[in-house]
Design goal:
alpha/beta, binds magnesium ion, five-stranded parallel beta sheet, KAP_P-loop, 2 domains, binds adenosine-5'-diphosphate, Rossmann fold, NTPase_KAP_P-loop, P-loop_NTPase, 5 strands
Amino acid sequence: MENPCLVLSDAPVGLKSDGLGFQRYVRPLVSIITGETTETPFTIGVFGPWGSGKSSLLRMIDESLAGDYADRTVRVHFNPWVHRKEPTMLLPLLHTLQDTLKEDGKQRFREVVGRLGHVIATLTSDVLLRKASGGNVSIEKIKEVSKQYAEQRGMVESEIRNLRKTLQAQADVVAENGSRLVIFIDDLDRCEPHEIIDLLESVKLFLDLRNVIVVMAIAKNVVDRGVAVKYRDFGFEAAKVVEIGDEYLDKMIQLPLTLMPIDTGAFLGHLTLPQELEAHAHLLEEMVAPNPRRIKRVLNAYSVMRTIAQADPELHRLRPDVVLRLLVLRIQSPELYEAVIVRPELAAALEDAYGGRLSPEAADHRFVERYGTTSATPMKEALKRFHRSQEYLGAVFGGTAFAEEKEQLPRYLTMLGS
Ligand SMILES: Nc1ncnc2c1ncn2[C@@H]1O[C@H](COP(=O)(O)OP(=O)(O)O)[C@@H](O)[C@H]1O
Ligand SMILES: [Mg+2]
């Protein structure tokens, strides 16, 4: 019987499937969110790169609040990416808030729901807004328009301030009913740069309210890209962009939490590895980037390869550790992987370099003799470029697996593809 192709789901996980010890974040955050002494408005930023577990942490905080503080928190989930095509993030944000309050089991917020409905209707039908925006309302435009409006009509209060006031009043009503509004904002990293800044502006303008706590998942580089696009015309250098991004978030976020690097070994122990990989778990641990999504990608790519190989007697005997090394290379260092496709001998040469058996500076004839290449120059150049270029390569080329499989290497590479 052939082994089934085991594919690991990439969906965010909840408390029951925690394999990274996230309780260490969940507990303190939940106690801050529900703490009597926590002053609001309060914004928590969960920072981490793509695939590090931000969405999962948000989900766990949500589960924990739903389990232990169901009555004391109203949890609103806003996914800006879903609404990215809408002219402004503000309306969907208000809609989401309204929908959540409508679903309250005890129907405590009927009045607030009605009020919000009114606000939404006014905003939607605001002729001034639509006229000025030409169908594309951004926060800047709302500001601009309300400025014109105020100037034209001599109004002291801007529309925005009015809206804020209304929203504040509604958040207070929710609080009087014994609950705090907790607004989760996730998947910012899937939005376009300009959309991200629009959303952050909306949050700053309209959710910075008493009795409201915002929990946001943020990949900092994505915000920086947003800043770079927003300030494109100023031509800032990359370092300046990062600095502006920092300042921007500093102003908004009272509690930044950066996810710590994961324990790769423990995470691999938590996953179900294909049987033949169990013996190579340590190798995998040394090679793979400490990122849960990356790890799952490597394992899934491996499972697919294995299923293909099972159906082909020629491929069946290929070594799992060699397949793993090549897969990790393909995912983590595509350029080096391409160089190996062009010159498979390069893999054995890198092993020799890492093993101290060959210097990239060695005489040309040694390359020609050892690897059967016609010209030593491209090999030497590739060695100089890639040898010790990244730490994990020491594990990939730290043995003689590629030399042992020299004859078969083109077959592996054909199977893995580019
Ligand atoms: N605490 C955890 N325990 C087990 N798996 C996790 C954990 N956190 C994240 N993962 C897994 O890692 C991958 C990326 O997680 P996700 O929460 O989507 O990250 P992000 O939102 O930072 O991109 C998913 O496959 C998810 O199932
Ligand atoms: Mg996510």
